């Protein structure tokens, strides 16, 4: 949608929502780093095991990002965003409840799924903001996601010192629930487009290989030889 009459009023609500969601998912995913020592002490596990509270979030984010990008490229982008945030909220609940350490890892993996939403926020900005503004908003989303990762460190450490690990993860539950409510109220439907297919990358790879195979090649024997100086007897 480009330059609709109501685009400016819509952008006033949409841009802060995009920034807030990108900030929240980045901050929540980074909560594991400053809490590793506190998790090891609270759950009576080794530091190596406690480090999985960060690794699980990063791994699930790496897996979820291409999947969410594929789902969000079609007409179900709004539903994908809401469902993903619901998974993040459910994971935040698991991190707050007094459950065994394994459930904490499950909750952290669910929180890491939210890392895939950054690309979807950029897609929403591209499709629903005026063309002259979408590029700057996409750049701001990238910056905000980095800021969110940095903001999560001191806040989590402070809350863990004051109220323990559950208090730090409780902050994650509050902000992810707020992000879900924000997305439900402000995320527009995706514009009508052809549904994506998993065969796209395969077709690109096949066309690239076919192009390379059909490219004419000169045999070595047909290459021109360098000029040789003729020897004349004195």
Folded structure, characterized:
The chain is an all-alpha fold and 234 residues long. Helices cover 73% and strands 0% of the residues. It has 10 helices and no strands. It has helices at 7-29, 36-43, 47-50, 52-72, 77-96, 101-112, 117-128, 131-163, 165-186, 199-214. Helix 5 (77-96) runs antiparallel to helix 6 and helix 8 runs antiparallel to helix 9 (165-186). The longest helix has 33 residues, at 131-163. The chain is elongated, with a radius of gyration of 25 Å. The N and C termini lie far apart (84 Å). The relative contact order is 0.18. Mean pLDDT is 79; it is low at 1-7 and 194-234.
Structural class, by secondary structure, is mainly alpha
Q: From N to C, what is the helix and strand string? A: HHHHHHHHHH
> Strand tally, please?
0
User: Low-confidence stretches at least 5 residues in length (pLDDT < 50)?
Assistant: 1-7, 194-234
Rounded radius of gyration (Å) = 25 Å
Globally, the shape reads: elongated
Helix content: over 70%
Strand content: under 5%
N/C terminus separation = 84 Å
Largest sheet: number of strands, sense, barrel closure: none
Helix segment count?
Answer: 10
Mean pLDDT: 79
């Amino acid at each position: 949608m480009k330059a609709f009459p109501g685009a400016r009023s819509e952008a006033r609500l949409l841009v802060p929502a995009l920034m807030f969601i990108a900030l929240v998912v980045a901050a929540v995913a980074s909560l594991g780093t400053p809490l590793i020592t506190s998790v090891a002490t609270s759950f009576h596990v080794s530091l190596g095991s406690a480090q999985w509270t960060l690794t699980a979030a990063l791994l699930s984010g790496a897996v979820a990002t291409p999947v969410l990008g594929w789902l969000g490229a079609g007409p179900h982008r709004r539903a994908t965003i809401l469902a993903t945030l619901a998974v993040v909220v459910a994971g935040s609940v698991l991190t707050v409840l007094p459950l065994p350490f394994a459930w904490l890892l499950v909750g952290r993996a669910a929180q890491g799924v939210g890392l895939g939403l950054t690309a979807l926020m950029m897609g929403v900005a591209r499709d629903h903001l005026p063309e002259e503004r979408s590029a700057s908003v996409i750049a701001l989303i990238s910056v905000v996601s980095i800021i969110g990762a940095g903001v999560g460190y001191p806040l989590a450490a402070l809350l863990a010192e004051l109220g323990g690990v559950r208090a730090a993860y409780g902050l994650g539950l509050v902000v992810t629930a707020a992000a879900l409510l924000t997305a439900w109220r402000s995320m527009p439907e995706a514009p009508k487009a052809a549904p994506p297919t998993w065969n796209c990358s395969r077709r690109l790879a096949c066309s690239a290989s076919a192009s390379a195979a059909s490219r004419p090649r000169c045999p070595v024997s047909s290459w021109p030889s360098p000029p040789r100086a003729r020897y004349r007897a004195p």
